[in-house]
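Running this now, will post back.
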Amino acid sequence: MLDEASETHKPIQITGKRSNAILISEEDWRSIHETLYLTSISRMQINRVEGSEHSTGRYRKESLTGEYL
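Update: finished.
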């Protein structure tokens, strides 16, 4: 099962009587964590920029037509 998960990069579902689990390769696990980390950094930077624009008065909300509200 380990070789299969590593070679195919597809998760393997393991079903038990009391609980279930998903097996993925270490490479895929690290990739998922890296993606989550980079996504969280991007969101923090966007929130920081939006917050600073709002606090300095440069923040302007646009309607769907592109007009400023």
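The radius of gyration is 22 Å. More later if anyone needs it.
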